[in-house]
Amino acid sequence: MSISLVAGLGNPGREYEHSRHNLGWHVVDAYASKHGLSWKSAPSFDAWVARRDLAPGRTLLLVKPLTFMNESGRSVGALARYHRIEPESIAAVYDDLTIDFGLVKVSVSGSAGGHNGVASLLEHLGNGFARLRLGIGPRTPPEMDLKDFVLARFTQEQLNQIKILTDTFVQDLELLIDSGPTQAMNKLNRRDNP
Q1: Residues 6+ apart with CB under 8 A from 184
Q2: Cα separation of 121 and 113, whole Å?
Q3: 131, 188 contact by CB (below 8 A)
Q4: β-strand partners of 134
């Protein structure tokens, strides 16, 4: 199954820009920008949506839910049902605390791992969607509250690194879209640290 819908997870509002929890939004924004796509408001889905024609008869939808992270699945689920897109044709792009900063992993199953946005997707889509997991770990300091950590902004040094890494993240997303989860897993999950 090819990917027809890519959901970048994040929170709307200026106060969440450059926060760790918005890395998924950042990457789908960068993908849209690279391919000259424009975001359009889709109030019925509570989302921003962009479209890209990949090939005759194959359209890719990008979505940024505006429901806040914990309700991401409501928006993505509604859009998927409307366009009759199965979970196997959906990819979610999001921050993952269990992966070291700058690393990327691809998976297609498993629990939410404490990520409320993924828990919401599982609730509204079921399992089987691809996941492009962008490392933001480890939590420092370790005693910091989880919510405070993910909603905090990256350090200036990390923001500088993200500027450098964004092209790689977009290429990783393109690999997932163009070649599917299995090939993306084989290549990206074995890749060494950046």
Answers
A1: 106, 130, 132, 172, 175, 176
A2: 12
A3: no
A4: 95, 104
How far does Cα 42 stand from its chain's mean position?
18
List, as one string, the DSSP characters of 70-107.
Answer: GGHHHHHHHHHHHTT--GGGEEEEEEEEEEETT-EEEE
CA neighbor of 7 nearest in space, from 176, 182, 186: 176
Please list, in sequence order, all residues whose beta carbon lies within 8 angstroms of the beta carbon of residue 190, skipping any fewer than 6 positions away.
none
Q: Which CATH number fits domain 5-188: 3.40.1280.10, 1.20.120.530, 3.40.50.720, 3.40.50.1470?
A: 3.40.50.1470
Model confidence pLDDT, tens digit, residues 10-45: 999 999 999 999 999 999 999 999 999 999 999 999
Model-wide pTM > 0.85: yes
Where exactly are the structural domains of the chain?
Answer: 5-188
The answer to whether 21 is a known catalytic residue is yes
> What letter represents residue 19's amino acid?
S
Q: Which of 21, 26, 115, 124 is catalytic?
A: 21
Sheet of 90-100, strands arranged across = 40-42, 47-55, 58-65, 5-8, 90-100, 130-137, 104-107
Residue closest to 9 by CA, chosen among 61, 76, 59, 77: 76
